[in-house]
Amino acid sequence: MKPKKKKVTDPNPKGWLQPEAGRKKYPRVFHNFDPNLRTQEKAVEYVRALNAAKLEKIFARPFIGAMDGHRDSVSCMAKNPNHLKGIFSGSMDGDIRLWDIASSVRLWSVPIAAAMESDGISDSSNKPLAVHVSKNAFWAADHQWDGDLFATAGAQVDIWDHNRSQPVKSFEWGSDTVISVRFNPGEPNILATSASDRSITVYDLRMDSPARKLIMRTRTNSISWNPMEPMNFTASSTSYAYRQMKIAIAIAMMLENWMKPNVSTKIMLDIDYSPTGREFVTGSYDRTVRIFQYNGGHSREIYHTKRMQRVFCVKFSWDASYVISGSDDTNLRLWKAKASEQLGVILPRERKKHEYMEAVKNRYKHLPEVKRITRHRHLPKPVYKASALRRIMAAAERRKEDRRRAHSTPGSMPKESMVEDELRKIS
Amino acid sequence: FSSSKLLNFQMGVRQENGTPRKLAPVTEEEIADVTDNEVRKYLRGEGANLEVIQDKKLKGQLAVREELYGKSAKAAAKAEKWLMPTEGGYLDAEGIEKTWRIKQDTIAREVDISSSKKQYDIVLPDFGPYTLDFTSSGRYMAAAGHKGHLAIIDLQNLGVIKELQVREAVRDVVFLHNELFFAAAQNKYLYIYNRDGTELHCLKEHGAVLKLQFLKNHFLLASINNFGQLHYQDVTTGEMINNYRTGLGRSDVLQVNPFNGVIASGHSGGTVNMWKPTSAAPLVKMLCHHGPVTGLAFHPNGHLMATAGMDRKIKLWDLRKFQVLQTLPGHAKTLDFSQKGLLATATGSFIQVLGDFSGSQNYSRYMGHSMAKGYQIQKVSFRPYEDVLGIGHSMGWSSILIPGAGEPNFDSWVANPFETSKQRREKEVRSLLDKLPAEAIMLDPSKIGTVRSARKKEKPTKQEREAEIEAAVAAAKSVSLKKKTKGRNKPSKLVKKRQQGIERAKRPLLEQQMEEELSKRKKRKMSEDNQLPTSLQRFARKTATA
């Protein structure tokens, strides 16, 4: 008769009982992914999401430092795609400086006197390479991403070449000043401009006449193209909304998305996209810097300080980790793009843990307790009250419109979409 | 690795017509082949139905996520197939031999020496029937004799860590989150001890506890006492979460369902009630037996419950539908499910182990064990991650081998029988961070994070209303009135003030009731009015006349 087979679980496979030589310090780890061994997984995940939300708030310290030096408010900034650490800033009294962001040190500057006169200066690095003069004042300038041309905006849009002293091309549509201009990162011949007659115009350099013009309800202060999806650009304006517009191949512009900071006095003065193309940052007249998701909605983040006055320009750093804002109080401030991010070298285990916390928080972020914590921001009183006021006003308008519609013959008052409300005319 | 897990390589198989086939290397797909059944174990339910979603973006995002779930389930199944170091135990009966006739000594002869060491009998006749509890890793055991003997034993080397004699009756013992702390239900109160035998806490609120259970994920100590009162205490903060009167008298059957953290108590009327800490009324009331319920046990997957009653029946219940799956004859003083789903029942001095071998929730006899005649078995408990059944009886405790009972592969992050003290400390901190709130206990724990269907606002029942009024009155009564000076502290005035406080507390609730009744009456009237034809409605009376 064959022996009866009986077997009991092997008690010491792989040296559980006596740890193998050299493994005492790092005991072997075994995994069994059976769900029956771990009960109530969803509740555990929910608790972890709650803890993750709380920890995120504890570690949310976005302000890194300020770069002090200008003597008048900072009006514009420029960043070089080939250099990560440097940023140029120009102030309203004509001072141009190059900053090293990492050490908050001024690397180079053009003093005001040098900007005015081109001779009698000892340091040759302060001399401009070329000076172009025009009869009208310039409002904005931008250089092609890939090429030799640059565009200036003033009375009209002029396209210049480095070597010529006269503009190569000139575009004009209407008789109002053009206040901002931006070249498309993907297609070097396309640029978008905004003018003071509340219009946004798209030009193609290969054509002789401007391509498309949109007239909006309010004036656009600044435009930024999405570096990852170069057919979209976002414009910031003097009303409470932003827009993202799409340029299809047939150059038909469509109003796509609507960003809602939901405050009425929030004139957005400048806007810049993150190099990931997924977020953009805006600086506003109400002394705050807001970061939005690219596809619309409320702002993901809002930064403010008592000392930061009207924010005139903002830039996203080229590694998508920092936001630099230049404001009326003559300072450039460096902020983290993600407020609770750990800077510096992160060990793999730490990084995994951060990623897990982020993922579990996103999974439960719609639940009320978690949402309450992640949504919470301290706002300065004017901003908070203004948003509350805006909400009341909007609700009142909507209510009145509903009542008008309810008391008029059905169909006589068609619903106007927000897009049509903002977009007045396309030509 | 056991050889059964290796692939069968095809080495030049000769076909029938004599020509050898070419050597075909094993392809990637064959190695990676896992069956659907294996994957289903890790899938945690069915996938979501994406057809009903109309939003294309959402549909796309959810489809990606579902695919990811599928992939991770497959990866887990592959890991199980290739990376698990141990195979489970088994018992093979040859020919006409039946598994339940195999005795423990035959098993001991066939297995290796370290496993046969796990069979033993500890004879301690002086200290009364023993009850046992294991830690979740299965390494430590707490034994409590009814006459006051408490002991913690390290089962790996069978060494006693600490034993003490508390000189009063001990009815139950349970480990808290690890082997450092255990709670003993002594004669009058509940005590918590350290591993060194130091008495840490004396919990008087629980009273004379009959049975204890510890909810691991929530760090809640649940107890039921002589008067049928259920107490939930949080052992991390010491806060008493809640205590409830079961209203069904003395009951000494209490079990926790490891799947959802619900406590079930068995009563002398044959009912089993399931409780959660945040509601006074039980979640579920089941009439299980025609006589008192004597034993209760939950399957680790939470869908199966075994109950035993004085009506000589052992019933297996499906907890999803609350229906009987199977009825088996026999008494059982104590029941326990193992990690692999074997059910041990014990009565008198006989133990029966039942197993479900066809996969269809049909339990049949697997093994049996009868002890010497005078031994009255008090408690059976399977040891986690081992094929061992611990038996506490009137003459001490024993341990027998039940092949195939325990989960062969442990997960170091869940319960590690070979834990170092550093790992234990880390685990304690981690589990405290992941401590679930008492509100997370519900019958279906997968409902967390899902959308709650819109419910109509339920009107409070009469009982609830009365309870509300009672609570308000009690709150008003408990307010302490300021003692005034200069002769203004007359007792009559105090009484008047107190009465006014009580009336003030009651008034809004009574007003609410009146309002509801009025609205009800109005609605009734309106419906009555509508029954008249329209031309006569002007003559309908608003108020009833004689």
TrEMBL record, chain A:
Q: Outline the WD repeats, range by range.
A: 67-109, 304-345
Region entry Disordered, spans: 1-21, 396-427
Please list the residue ranges that the record marks as compositionally biased, kind Basic and acidic residues: 417-427
Q: Which organism is it from?
A: Escallonia herrerae
Q: Which SUPFAM superfamilies match?
A: WD40 repeat-like
User: Does this entry carry the keyword Phosphoprotein?
Assistant: no
User: What's the superkingdom here?
Assistant: Eukaryota
**What name goes with this protein?**
DDB1- and CUL4-associated factor 13
One annotated Gene Ontology cellular component of this protein: small-subunit processome
Keywords for the protein's UniProt record, in alphabetical order:
Nucleus, Repeat, Ribonucleoprotein, WD repeat
Family recorded in the similarity comment: Belongs to the WD repeat DCAF13/WDSOF1 family.
Single Gene Ontology BP annotation: maturation of SSU-rRNA from tricistronic rRNA transcript (SSU-rRNA, 5.8S rRNA, LSU-rRNA)
Q: What is its main location?
A: nucleus
* Ribonucleoprotein is among the record's keywords: yes
Recall the taxonomic lineage recorded for the source organism: Eukaryota, Viridiplantae, Streptophyta, Embryophyta, Tracheophyta
Give the matching Pfam families: Sof1, WD40
Q: Where does this protein reside within or beyond the cell?
A: Nucleus, Nucleolus
Q: Where is the Sof1-like protein domain?
A: 337-418
TrEMBL record, chain B:
Q: Where found in the cell?
A: Nucleus, Nucleolus
For bias kind Basic and acidic residues, which ranges apply? 500-509
UniProt KW Transmembrane helix keyword: no
Q: What is this protein called?
A: BING4 C-terminal domain-containing protein
**GO biological process, any:** maturation of SSU-rRNA from tricistronic rRNA transcript (SSU-rRNA, 5.8S rRNA, LSU-rRNA)
Organism of origin is Escallonia herrerae
Main localization of the protein? nucleus
Q: Which parts are the WD repeats?
A: 286-327
Ordered alphabetically, the record's keywords are: Nucleus, Repeat, rRNA processing, WD repeat
Gene3D superfamilies per record: YVTN repeat-like/Quinoprotein amine dehydrogenase
Region feature Disordered, mapped onto this chain: 478-546
Give the matching InterPro entries: BING4_C_dom (IPR012952), WD40/YVTN_repeat-like_dom_sf (IPR015943), WD40_repeat_CS (IPR019775), WD40_repeat_dom_sf (IPR036322), WD40_rpt (IPR001680), WDR46/Utp7 (IPR040315)
User: Which part of the chain is the BING4 C-terminal domain?
Assistant: 365-445
Which GO terms of the cellular component aspect does the record hold? Answer: 90S preribosome; small-subunit processome
**TM region(s), chain numbering:** none
Q: Name one Pfam family in it.
A: BING4CT
- Coiled-coil blocks: none
The Basic residues compositionally biased stretches are 480-499
